[in-house]
């Protein structure tokens, strides 16, 4: 029950935060969710309802599906053609950064190198979701954005292996280079193979099922939603990288989706909408959780915070050294321009996986004092990696052009579209009540029906005034279909004028088609 209450509180907070975000268009949803999490942590009543952070549950229930959906949104061809660059960013860059950052802290503060390597390893993974929130409203060079996305998909595993190596070194007093390299290869390559094979077998099963008479959309959807959890669980059970496994399974699913979307259109549309919905909720879940955890970290480590500022300086040095290394790599290895190299360096934003890795470390291994220090340092790294680029990108990256004027024109087109649909219905020889019902439905397309109109219609339905007979239902369907045809024809005429990007008109077309499917599909017919 506790986990249900805890999840329920966070989900309610997400719903409220996302509504509030509509009133603050200049602030990313991520920061609103983060602030909501901080608020939950500050209020004693809500804070006690939310369970303590559990890194294993977090990685399994939140990160695994998020990375699977990220993988599904990435083309296999892109990964294959950029394999050399991806390996360089997610392995070479990560290892070099960890070693140099660890060495810098070792020199500056005299901490043992195995412990500083642990610090550096935890700050290795980057977060694509956090990056998207930071650059929201800004135009980023396509190549840099793609590199940052590829890096964030695959460098988590490197960080986890480096962390394990650092902890082993700290416990045993020696580092076996050959053993750690072999562990990395087994984990990374094993995760890649397992995720690819598992994803391929699931794809074959789903595609065989969809082409038979026993295909059931609900069963297919359950299989689709369970895939990332199963892949991650079994990969971790056989001691390969669950992170890489779910990404690779997602890549397989991307190719499947592109070539089977019309084999069962209902199923594909449902799966797409569920994926978008779950991704949005999980992304928000990450930052609400991060906000709550940050409050608890400060509260639980208040004495350490006030006794010494070493944690602050170490966090700043880790972030600055990482920036310099990332800039040098982008400039001299990837051969980016100076501007693109700066963007790449600042784009290495840390978030959910870094937080999970911190809490995966046992205080018994590093010691209670070092454990508290580690939590505070990584908290600073996460905060700096989000705040610094948020500020600097406002000066470095051009803003996305304001489309408010275009959206106003689109609203005018929508209004005219609905007017034409209503006009054609008024010309039809149909029952008066049918006409009223159809016109009300058409006016809903541009939300011209107020609460009074809705309540009037609601009472009418309850009083059985819209209980149409078979002929009236047929007339209602025919009137709506005719109106939709007129609306589409009008949109086609507007598109020929080339006033603005047709994507805006495609969105209106899509709304009409969805409305049409509600009218035509027998499942959607009310009794």
Description:
- This protein folds into 2 domains: 395 residues, Na+/H+ antiporter like fold; 121 residues, no CATH class.
- It contains 24 helices and no strands.
- Helix 1 packs across helix 13 and helix 23 packs antiparallel against helix 24.
- The two termini are 38 Å apart.
What is the gist of this entry?
The protein is mainly alpha-helical and 527 residues long. 80% of the residues lie in helices and 0% in strands. The protein is elongated and about 90 Å long.
The helix-strand sequence is: HHHHHHHHHHHHHHHHHHHHHHHH
Helix content: over 70%
The poorly predicted ranges are none
Give the name of the CATH architecture of the largest domain.
Up-down Bundle
Work out the radius of gyration.
27 Å
Strand elements, count: 0
Domain Cation/H+ exchanger transmembrane: 12-396
Main location: membrane
GO molecular function: potassium:proton antiporter activity; sodium:proton antiporter activity
Keywords: Cell membrane, Ion transport, Membrane, Sodium, Sodium transport, Transmembrane, Transmembrane helix, Transport
How do the helices and strands line up, and which of them pair or pack?
Layout: H1 2-21, H2 29-42, H3 44-49, H4 55-72, H5 76-81, H6 83-109, H7 113-122, H8 128-134, H9 142-172, H10 177-210, H11 217-237, H12 242-258, H13 265-300, H14 302-307, H15 310-332, H16 338-346, H17 352-360, H18 363-366, H19 368-396, H20 404-426, H21 432-443, H22 451-462, H23 470-495, H24 502-520
GO biological process, one term: regulation of intracellular pH
Transmembrane segments: 6-24, 31-51, 57-74, 86-105, 184-202, 214-232, 238-254, 274-299, 311-329, 341-361, 373-397
Subcellular location: Cell membrane
């Amino acid at each position: 029950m506790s986990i249900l209450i805890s999840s329920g509180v966070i989900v309610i907070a997400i719903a409220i935060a996302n509504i509030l975000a509509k009133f603050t268009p200049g602030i990313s949803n991520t920061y609103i969710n983060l602030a909501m999490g901080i608020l939950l942590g500050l209020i004693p009543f809500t804070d006690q309802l939310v369970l303590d952070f559990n890194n294993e549950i977090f990685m399994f229930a939140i990160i695994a599906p998020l990375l699977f959906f990220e993988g599904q949104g990435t083309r296999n061809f892109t990964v294959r053609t950029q394999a050399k660059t991806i390996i360089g960013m997610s392995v070479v860059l990560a290892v070099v950064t960890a070693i140099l950052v660890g060495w810098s802290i070792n020199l500056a503060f005299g901490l043992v190198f195995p412990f500083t390597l642990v610090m550096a390893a935890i700050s290795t993974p980057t977060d694509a979701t956090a990056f998207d929130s930071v650059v929201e409203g800004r135009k980023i060079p396509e190549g840099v954005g793609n590199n940052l996305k590829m890096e964030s998909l695959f460098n988590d595993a490197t960080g986890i292996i480096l962390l394990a190596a650092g902890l082993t070194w700290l416990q045993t007093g020696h580092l076996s280079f050959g053993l750690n390299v072999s562990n990395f290869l087994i984990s990374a390559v094993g995760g890649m193979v397992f995720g690819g094979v598992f994803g391929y077998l699931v794809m074959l099963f789903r595609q065989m099922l969809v082409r038979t008479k026993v295909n059931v959309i609900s069963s297919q959807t359950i299989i689709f939603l369970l895939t990332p959890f199963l892949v991650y669980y079994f990969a971790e059970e056989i001691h390969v990288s669950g992170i890489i496994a779910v990404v690779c399974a997602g890549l397989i699913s991307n190719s499947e989706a592109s070539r089977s979307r019309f084999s069962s259109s209902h199923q594909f549309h449902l799966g797409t909408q569920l994926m978008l919905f779950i991704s949005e909720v999980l992304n928000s879940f990450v930052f609400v959780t991060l906000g709550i955890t940050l409050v608890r970290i400060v509260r639980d480590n208040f004495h350490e915070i006030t006794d010494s500022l070493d944690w602050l300086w170490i966090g700043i040095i880790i972030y600055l050294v990482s920036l310099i290394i990332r800039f040098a790599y982008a400039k001299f290895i990837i051969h980016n321009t100076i501007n693109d190299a700066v963007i790449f360096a600042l784009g290495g934003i840390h978030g959910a996986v870094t937080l999970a890795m911190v809490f995966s470390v046992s205080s018994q291994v590093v010691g209670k004092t070092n454990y508290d220090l580690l939590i505070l340092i990584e908290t600073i790294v996460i905060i700096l990696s989000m705040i610094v680029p948020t500020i600097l990108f406002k000066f470095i990256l051009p803003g996305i052009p304001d489309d408010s004027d275009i959206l106003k024109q689109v609203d005018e087109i929508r209004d005219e579209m609905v007017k034409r649909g209503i006009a054609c219905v008024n010309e039809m020889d149909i029952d008066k009540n049918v006409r009223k019902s159809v016109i009300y439905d058409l006016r809903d397309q541009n939300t011209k029906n107020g609460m009074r109109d809705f309540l009037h219609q609601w009472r009418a339905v309850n009083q059985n005034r819209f209980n149409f007979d078979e002929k009236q239902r047929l007339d209602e369907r025919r009137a709506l279909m005719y109106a939709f045809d007129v609306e589409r024809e009008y949109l086609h005429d507007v598109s020929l004028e080339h006033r603005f990007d047709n994507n805006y008109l495609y969105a209106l077309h899509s709304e009409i088609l969805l409305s049409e499917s509600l009218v035509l599909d027998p499942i959607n017919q009310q009794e």
